[in-house]
Write a structure and sequence with these properties.
two-stranded antiparallel sheet
Amino acid sequence: MNGPNNKIGWTDYTWNPVKGLCPVGCPYCYARRIYDRFHYDPTIRLDEKELQAPYKIKKPAKIFVGSTIELFGEWTDDWMERILKVCSENPQHRFQFLTKLPGGLTSFDFPDNCWLGITITFQGDSVKALWLKHLKTPVRFVSIEPLLGEPTFLDGIYDSLDWIIIGAETGNRKGKVTPKEIWIKNILAHARDHQIPVFMKHNLRPHWQGELRQEFPEDK
């Protein structure tokens, strides 16, 4: 478990009980770059020692689960119930789950201390966002990181959101997308109209001249 001074910003700790190279293979994935650079074992597996890590943190914290791998694919089906059991047995914490495969969220019963989010980055992800309307969770959120296009993909779901995270693409890959300031302005305007807290990551600073809003949702 990494933290509390992680670089993500919107969480206190990152918890990765499932190790290995993420099969989703997003071209902008920072974890894939790390695996390639340091030649880490790509085998997907449950780390029994890491699974127990939340029990050691007594002070209430926000814990991002699965920061380096997609947890809601078929490759984790045998382990998710055990992960959720740990969440249930640590009610002092808020466990933040974020996925690119939102259909998998409906396969499990999440404890009340779990926040559920979906990563959406461009117009082609608009269908994914609709899953949020059907999720039972204290906090529904979207992570728009990296922001890769005009944020019309959020139209129609703002009234379902409790939180929005915005970030820019990092790294130096060929085809890297630089977010336009107008895209960020549009998201902030809609968030203001719907009274949705917004967390703007520090990697937006080169593309945004205004204040970096770093707000958190109320836990219902």
